[in-house]
From TrEMBL, chains A, D:
It is found in: Cell membrane. It holds the Pfam family BPD_transp_2. Its main location: membrane. InterPro entries: ABC_transp_permease. It is a multi-pass membrane protein. Keywords: Cell membrane, Membrane, Transmembrane, Transmembrane helix. This is ABC transporter permease.
Automatic annotation (TrEMBL), chain B:
This is Sugar ABC transporter ATP-binding protein. It holds the Pfam family ABC_tran. CDD domains: ABC_Carb_Monos_I, ABC_Carb_Monos_II. The gene is gguA_2. GO terms for molecular function: ATP binding. It comes from Promicromonospora umidemergens.
Length: 331, 516, 299, 331
């Protein structure tokens, strides 16, 4: 056995090496996105145009915000199928608060977020205390939210035309040239990043996903924390709902189905494992951007719609495979 | 001391699981300032008793006291708060989190709601320095070897301000150097206000570290004996309920002349095995009917040799089986060529934890248990029942789920799987990890008789006595290289240690990255 | 479709069409009409639409991308007019003329609207149902509960029955997403719950075929009056075989054709009528092979 | 230690007792279904009618067959998102073989199955050899299959009107009163059941799901077997496609999206764990029946569509929770 002091020195060197490597890895994670971007820039003169890039960012925003929340649930090894229709329910409720009840803007927006948190809370309670598999708990919530959106709205869109300034929430440009929706997405990502890596919620999400039993044995109240984690995820769903409503200047009760798969795909493409324990917010943001860029680029190139699907499928395989190769080399 | 209340006491505790009475009216007294050894056969109920102290289970009957006050912890956290720290037999670690994050899980220092990871690392560093553990706090636990993980568990337990330290087979994964470190840690820990409960199947360790020994058998309390005045033989007798001959080298292999020398056929020949990480030009030969031992310090590369040979990790070099050059790309190729490997990490590489004994035992031999493409489960049940008898696996039935078995019995199930597969070459990596003294002897007998039947066996073990007792020849490794090969009958622990430390350094507990 | 060719890169004028759907036969027929016109008028046309008629946001993103391609004119069938107002403004500011088609956009931006009146068309279906059934219970299998088209095709029908056919009761309206199988299952459940049902109306191709399937599978062929909407081979076959009394078809091919034609006119700066009605037709066994009808039916 | 012979006798007795308990458990699994059935029978006089039960069975058939295949993939701890659109592609290809190319019926049907197997094979190769997460590999396949269905069919349905007898494959009644589609579903379930519990494919699927690394070290060629397992799953997708085509007497290229979630839901409601290692075919059949029965019952009761969603969501939670309670007691 070496003397303690040498040991410490050695381990600290190792730690620094590890830290740098991780940073490098995160930077390299952009590679897939950059390649896709470069390709489309060559392929079409319209692609690398600020209006179009703005369009891509805007298209990323709502799914991206949902994906942020889903990242937390997936970090625990769970899955959240309710983000899509849950978002819609939040839109509709925001509509009820603002357009039907005429509540002040701030109250309506906070109300929308609260509904999201409530959805998450119920998911969390079902998963923790009823011990339902997350797939089932959130599938049920997906249906209930879809049904309730229709019931509450009377299957008709709720318009915000008379709610002054609501559409500016997404469309306004606090930073000139950048729609607020995108700004909100980035801000949400920053908050999610800190929450995942620096707060107990995030730490325990990763810990539960890594080994739930061990986490419980270590004295973490796993059930309670799961409820917290799902609730946090729900907050992002709520935010997505508000942004969506603002972007459409209306709450569309029929929307939402299918968004959950897109959100989960963004998370997984970003390198988060569905088995839990490993998750990065930066990855999720990149994953969401990759999805939106691909769709946009293929459209800009006027690839026929039926071929677009085929192309997206193949590119996803290539992007994720490249990512796996890259990691394989680094490990 | 005798009139002050015991530090920790259990009186008349019982605990049942479906089909099993794991504890039946058990007593235990831990005095202040002592190390109390807790011994018993596999499945005797040791781990279950300890889980009562840590609040993982509640006793069905009976009571527990801490310093004379009744205690019934509602869970591990409360047990910690009461000053009881437990290192469980099965690791409870989060592989994706770092070492420091694991140690302080549930107790993260925060500022303004944000976790201070730098502070976590600092505290872990201080802890490691105090304990003399060479680990990097920032390393993910998934990068650690089994021994490294064990050290993390130990550090975690000692990171609490504990009065009672409970350790369930902490040395099963450790080599002698780390065992020495651990014993130093234990001795430092013991003071007039603290006490240690120590579970082990290694009698020499118990002799060395403990003050008294409590013996369990079949879930019942047998006796508590003072270590100093009790012979190992008597302890074992109390454990198994009869006299047992141990420590004697079985007759067949002790003839003195190594079979390798008398020109028996070479079954497995490895030349120039090299891996990117560790191994450099490893060569050896294994003969028919031979038991070849592999010795070395932790991280010497023995496990890595085995994994490379069976194709679990990438390597370069030549492998010949029965004189034929073969290319082994994965363990399936290895088994096809008659080479089986029992891993040192039974939980990760050995067991289907949520499946029953039958399915576990059948796994390797499954293709041979089919007729017209259909699996014959009756065969599996029969074979499993046979194995349960042959290896004395303690289980209520062959359909018991593997994770409900005691640690030693799980190990036996993994061994049974390979016995059923009946490979010509069997590589066993720490085959008796967690197995009790009596069963150990039976397994030694079993391995020897397999060799006598013409099977060839490689035994990797960190217990030098085990290697010396079983092996016809011993390959000694250091830092990924073979530093010498000794003839078993003539080898001594001293010879082996000399070769094992040829390059004079010790490697850290880190084994960079898993194979995935 | 224009293949993978770079739109707008050549000399041909480029017209981008963003529709309400893509893979439904109705929208494919619109696309066909648009392609016909494109060939005839020598322009470049692209045609896109979301998978279902609830995907308002997806459609907006498509519209955005279409605008970013700088087309010479834009054809747009809005899933929700309100939501697309900013985009319309954007198009106007870029000087891209917009032709609304299908349901129209509540905005001044579109230079013309090539529309089809779903309310009137479904009222026509109701009229025939009333005539054929006389009195009794009927039911509706709808294709979409939330989209404008889906709602209007139920509304127009229901309104007509309520106002003009006092002897007829609509006992149930179920939505099955226009999925053939699910529509069949839904229709069966309705028939099961109302054994004395006299007729069922399916609001689009998938729903209508599903209803026919259900009637067939429960061995009630000929006992119920089935009325459909849109065309497609399965429906025309069902009408020929007497499984279906008849159906309403709009003229999607014409709609596509007129949209592109109007776009080209707008590009050339011509004056346009504010509304071009693409019309609808009732067809049944008797007129299915008439030239006028056969021309608007698609396989 | 007892003498060997007694021990053997004891363990074998115990095994029999356990066997019985397992059977009991499987019978009890019907409980949820029975309760739902009983409820609707009381609620509506039209529910418990052979014609309606037949309708339910018919509605179960296609999703049920897909769910059978998905069970194998889920048993390995994977997920198969490509079953829905994959089924559609198989329908379309069956149409190409029979209606467009005019091949003999048997060849066309086998061709449809082969396409399913091919889809599964590609999924398996992507998962095994490219090491893609199953979610990503099958998500990509879901898109590719959807695109190809549209491309190959020219976005138009392919009709089988001229292919004599093709519709009888699903609609005919070999057993009088029972449509062949249902018969095929039950036969497929029987085959799947035997395959899962009695063949190497099934056993290795469960082992891989239970502990992939341990299975590999035990000498099972995990990569190869995964390919086999996904291919088997694909065969069921193919069968579902053929049955679907026959039932509609046409291949509808636009269909299929959303079926994958229904199929997975059926599997999970049936008690199969998404973590892998535990799966039963009987459970999947019951799960699929529960889903179809619920939908049918609510429709028969003329519950408005929007409330149906809410009700289905809630009943799924209750059914699965009851199942968890029942198991909890037994374990
Ligand atoms: N969760 C459980 N469910 C069912 N049976 C259990 C469970 N845990 C332990 N047992 C049974 O209780 C008995 C005692 O197990 P325990 O783990 O306490 O033994 P042990 O003395 O620690 O053995 P070892 O030396 O092998 O670690 C065994 O027969 C075991 O199979
Ligand atoms: N859990 C594991 N996953 C992957 N590889 C492992 C694992 N455990 C060990 N290895 C391989 O074996 C090596 C660690 O064991 P190694 O052969 O160095 O030591 P050893 O001599 O067997 O001693 P010990 O096993 O006691 O640490 C690693 O370098 C790694 O390649
Ligand atoms: Mg134990
Ligand atoms: Mg080792």
């Amino acid at each position: 056995m070496t003397t303690p002091s040498t040991t410490t020195a050695r381990t600290e060197r190792a730690a620094t090496r590890f830290g740098n490597r991780q940073q490098l890895q995160q930077i390299l994670a952009f590679a897939g996105l950059v390649v896709i971007f470069a390709f489309f820039s060559f392929a079409s003169p319209y692609f690398l145009d600020w209006a179009n890039v703005k369009g891509i960012l805007l298209a990323t925003a709502v799914t991206g915000i949902m994906a942020l929340g889903a990242t937390f649930v997936i970090a625990t090894g769970g899955i959240d199928l309710s983000v899509g229709t849950g978002m819609t329910l939040c839109s509709v409720m925001t509509g009820v608060f603002l357009a039907n009840l005429g509540l002040p803007l701030v109250v309506g927006v906070l109300g929308g977020l609260a509904i999201g948190a409530l959805i998450g809370l119920l998911n969390g309670l079902n998963v923790s205390y009823l011990r339902l598999p997350p797939f089932i708990a959130t599938l049920a919530m997906m249906m209930v939210a879809q049904g309730l959106s229709l019931v509450i709205s009377g299957t008709k869109p709720i318009y915000f035309s008379d709610v002054g300034g609501f559409d500016q929430l997404a469309a306004g440009e606090l930073v000139p040239g950048l729609p607020n929706a995108v700004l909100i997405f980035f801000a949400a990502a920053a908050i999610a990043g800190v929450t995942l890596s620096k707060t107990l919620t995030g730490r325990y999400a990763l810990s539960i996903g890594s080994n739930e039993e061990a986490t419980a044995i270590s004295g973490v109240d796993v059930r309670r924390w799961k409820v917290v984690i799902y609730t946090v995820a729900g907050l992002f769903t709520g935010l997505a709902g508000v942004v969506m409503a603002s972007r459409l200047n209306s709450a569309q009760p029929g929307l939402g189905l299918g968004y959950e798969l897109e959100a989960i795909a963004a998370v997984v493409i970003g390198g988060t494992s569905l088995r839990g324990g490993k998750a990065t917010i930066l990855g999720t943001v990149i994953g969401a951007l990759i999805m939106a860029t691909l769709t946009n680029g293929l459209r800009i190139m006027s690839i026929p719609q039926e071929w677009q699907k085929v192309a997206v499928g193949i590119v996803i395989v290539l992007a994720v495979y490249a990512d796996i190769l890259r990691r394989g080399k680094e490990a | 001391m005798s009139d002050s209340p015991a530090l920790l006491r259990a009186t008349g505790v019982s605990k049942s699981f479906p089909g099993v009475r794991a504890l039946d009216d058990v007593h235990l007294d831990l005095r202040h300032g002592e190390v109390l050894a807790l011994v018993g056969e596999n499945g005797a109920g040791k781990s279950t008793l300890l889980k009562l102290f840590s609040g993982i289970y509640r006793p069905d009957e009976g009571a527990m006291e801490l310093d004379g006050a009744p205690m019934s912890p509602s869970g591990p956290r409360q047990a910690n708060e009461l000053g009881i720290s437990v290192i469980h037999q099965e690791f409870h670690l989060m592989p994706d989190l770092t070492v420091a994050q694991n140690i302080f899980i549930g107790r993260e220092p925060r500022r303004a709601g944000l976790i201070r990871d730098d502070e976590l690392v600092r505290r872990a560093g201080v802890l490691f320095e105090r304990l003399g553990i060479p680990l990097d706090p920032r390393q993910p636990v998934s990068h650690l070897s089994v021994a490294g993980q064990q050290m993390v568990e130990i550090a975690k337990a000692l990171s609490f301000d504990a009065r009672v330290l409970i350790m369930d087979e902490p040395t099963a994964a450790l080599t002698e150097t780390e065992v020495d470190t651990l014993f130093r840690i234990v001795r430092d820990f013991v003071s007039p206000r603290t006490g240690v409960i120590y579970v082990s199947h290694r009698m020499d360790e118990i002799k060395e570290i403990s003050d008294r020994i409590t013996v369990l058998r079949d879930g019942r309390y047998v006796d508590t004996l003072p270590t100093a005045s009790t012979a190992t033989r008597e302890v074992i007798a109390a454990m198994v309920g009869r006299q047992l001959e141990t420590g004697v080298r079985p007759g067949a292999a002790s003839s003195g002349s190594a079979p390798g020398a008398d020109g028996r056929e070479v079954v497995l020949s490895v030349r120039g095995l090299t891996t990117r990480k560790l191994l450099r030009d490893v060569s050896f030969e294994l003969h028919r009917g031979e038991i070849l031992g592999f010795a070395g310090l932790m991280g010497a590369g023995r496990t890595e040799v085995a994994r490379a040979v069976i194709g679990a990790d990438r390597s370069t070099g030549a492998v010949e089986v029965q004189g034929r050059a073969v290319r082994i790309r994965n363990p399936a190729d290895a088994v096809r060529n008659g080479i089986g490997y029992l891993s040192e990490d039974r939980k990760r590489y050995g067991l289907l934890l949520d499946q029953d004994v039958v399915r576990n035992v059948m796994l390797s031999a499954l293709p041979g248990m089919t007729r017209a493409g259909f699996v014959r489960d009756a065969d599996g049940r029969r074979v499993a029942a046979e194995m349960v008898d042959r290896l004395a696996i303690r289980t209520p039935s062959v359909t018991q789920t593997a994770k409900n078995l005691s640690g030693g019995n799980q190990q036996k199930v993994v061994l049974a799987k390979w016995l059923v597969r009946d490979c010509d070459v069997l590589i066993v990596d720490e085959p008796t990890r967690g197995i009790d003294v009596g069963a150990k002897d039976e397994i030694y007998g079993l391995l020897t008789s397999l060799a006598a039947q013409g099977k060839s066996i490689i035994v990797i073990s960190s217990e030098l006595p085990e290697v010396l007792r079983l092996a016809d020849r011993v390959v000694v490794m250091c830092e990924g290289r073979v530093t010498g090969t000794l003839v078993g009958a003539d080898a001594t622990q001293h010879d082996i240690m000399e070769l094992a430390t040829r390059f004079g350094t010790d490697r850290s507990l880190v084994t960079t990255g898993d194979s995935a | 479709g224009s293949g993978g060719a770079e739109p707008g890169a050549g000399d041909k004028p480029y017209v981008a069409l963003v529709s309400k759907g893509f893979q439904h036969q109705f929208w494919q027929a619109v696309k066909q009409g648009a392609d016909d016109a494109a060939a005839e008028l020598d322009v470049e046309v692209t045609f896109e639409g979301p998978e279902t008629e609830t995907e308002v946001e997806k459609q907006l993103t498509m519209l955005q991308t279409a605008l970013d391609k700088n087309p010479d004119a834009l054809g747009y069938a809005a899933l929700d007019s309100e939501a697309s107002i900013p985009m319309m403004t954007d198009a106007e500011s870029r000087g891209i003329p917009v032709i609304a088609f299908d349901s129209g956009v509540e905005s001044d931006v579109p230079v013309t609207t090539v529309s089809t009146d779903n309310l009137a068309a479904s009222a026509e279906a109701a009229k025939h149902m009333a005539e054929l059934v006389g009195s009794g219970k009927i039911a509706i299998v709808g294709h979409d509960q939330t989209s404008q088209t889906g709602q209007q095709r139920v509304e127009g029908f229901t309104q007509y029955i309520e106002e003009n056919a006092p002897g007829i009761e609509i006992v149930d309206t179920q939505f099955a997403g226009g999925d053939h199988l699910k529509s069949a299952d839904a229709a069966k459940a309705i028939m099961q719950a109302h054994p004395d049902l006299e007729g069922i109306y399916g609001t689009n191709e998938g729903s209508a075929i599903g209803v026919v399937k259900a009637v067939q599978e429960s061995g009630k062929a000929g006992e119920l009056t089935v009325i459909g909407f849109d065309s497609g081979k399965a429906q025309t076959d069902a009408i020929r075989d007497g499984l279906m009394a008849g159906a309403i078809t709009q003229d999607p091919i014409k709609m596509g054709y007129e949209t592109v034609k109007a776009a080209v006119a707008a590009i050339n700066g011509e004056e346009l009528e504010p509304v071009v009605d693409s019309g609808f037709y009732w067809y049944d066994e008797t007129n299915i092979d008439d030239e006028e009808i056969a021309a608007v039916l698609y396989e």
